[in-house]
# Entry
Amino acid sequence: MDRRSFLISSAALVAMPRVGQATAEPQVLRAMGFEQQILPTEFAGATRVLGFNGSTPGPELRIRQGQQLDIRLQNDLDMGAAVHWHGIRLDNRMDGVPGMTQPLVVPGETFDYSFTPPDAGTYWYHSHYLSQEQVARGLMGALVIEEETPPDVDHDITAILSDWKFDPEGQLIDDFDNLHDRAHAGRMGNFARAFLPDVTLKQGMRIRLRLINAAIDRIFPVILKGLSGQVVALDGMPLARPREMGMPVLAPAQRVDVIADVTGPVSLEMDHRAGAYPLGALAVVGAITPRTAGISPLPANRIPPAAKTAAQHLTLTMQGGAMGRGHGGEGIWAFNDMSGMQE
# Structure
C-alpha cells in the first residue's frame, strides 16, 4: 500500500454524534484512546486514534446563540489534555491553553468549562496541549452556534476535513514533530477525507454546508459538486453580502459556510496536483421543487465597538524555515529574532 494508493482512494462516510442543548449538569467530553476505521476497509483495518467519547471527530456540540455551554473535560488519556474553543469570544480563563489560561488536566482528572458564546456561526474545539500530535490523532470536533432565527434550509450539515499520515498497516506514523516537517510545509498526510453525516438529500433541496478544516497543516481547495449557491460566512462571521461559491480554500482551522441548492449528486473533492481527490459524498435520491427565493445574508453578530484608546502598532517579521536566512531566535522559526514563549 503506497502513497499513490492512498491518494487515489475514495473516502468513506461516518455519522457524527451530536450533543444537544445545554443542561444543568455539565456535558462530559471524555478524552480517550480507541480504534476507529479511518481508511477504506479494502486498504486496512481500524486505526489507533485519540478522540472524545469514543469518536473522532468528537460529538458535535450545538446550541443556540446566547445559551450557556457547560462542558466537563474528563481526561482518560495517559497524557495531559485541555480543550480550546476555536474562534469563540469568551473569558480568558475558559480558553483552554494549559500553562497560560488554566492548569494542565492530568490523566484521571477533570476540568469544567462554562461560557456563553455571543456569536452565531461555525466553530470547533480541539486539544491545545501537544496540538501537533493530539489534534493529528483525532482530539477535535465541531462546535455550532445556531442563529436565533436560522436561515431557511432543509438540512444543516457539518463537514470536518482532515488528513492522516499512515504506514502500510494503516496506523499513524509517529513522527508528529520531526525537524523536516517543522522546517518545510508542515506534516502532510497521505490520506484525506471529509467526515459527513449519514443523510439523504433530494434534488432541489436547499442546504447549509459548514466546512471545517481540522488538519494540522494541509490547505484544502474544496470542489463542491452538485451544489449551486453562495458563501455566507467565513470563520464563523456572517458576510454582509454573500459571495459566489466557487472553490472555497480552507487553511488549517478555517471555516466556510455555504448555502446552496442541490442540483445533482453531491460530492466534496480536493483540488490536487495529481487530480481531483475524493473526500466524501452525500446521497441524493428523488427531487422536490426548488425554492425561487434568493439566498439572503445571515443576521449580523453583535460585535462590540472598537475601544477608543490609542492602538498600539507593532511590526512582526516572520523569519526562518528551511530556505530562510538566519535569525537571533533559538528555534527554526522566529518573530523579530525571538522563538518560542519569549516575550
